[in-house]
Amino acid sequence: MANQTRIIKIDGMTCGGCVASVHTATDSIDGIDTISVDLADNLATVTFDDSKTSAEAIASAIDEAGFDATVANS
């Protein structure tokens, strides 16, 4: 039960509405402590409990919202 912080690269965001969509897409994921979306850099910094979810699962949820999300190498 360790918290991890990972960077997710998100392509396709163009405005504040896109940032809100990313937050909405990840709101229901159990285990996320914080998510900070940076529109200028097309990145999300996410801190989560790795016993409940994974960076890949979070990226997949963002993908399903219509963006191209990939986990950055740590």
Question: Explain this structure to me?
Answer:
By secondary structure, the chain is of the alpha+beta class. It has helices at residues 16-27, 55-64; strands spanning 3-11, 32-38, 43-49, 68-71. Strand 2 (32-38) and strand 3 (43-49) form a beta hairpin. Helix 1 packs across helix 2 (55-64). It is globular, with a radius of gyration of 11 Å. InterPro entries: HMA_dom (IPR006121), HMA_dom_sf (IPR036163), MerP/CopZ (IPR001802).
In sequence order, what are the helices and strands, one letter per element? EHEEHE
The tally of beta strands, per DSSP, is: 4
| Distance N to C terminus | 19 Å
Number of helices: 2
- Radius of gyration (CA) equals 11 Å
What value does the average pLDDT take?
Answer: 95
Q: Which class of secondary structure composition applies to the elements?
A: alpha+beta
How large a portion of the residues is in β-strands, by DSSP E? Answer: 35-45%
- Percent range for helical residues? 25-40%
Largest sheet: 4 strands, antiparallel
The shape, in one word, is globular
Spatial order of the strands in the main sheet? 2-3-1-4
Unreliable parts: none
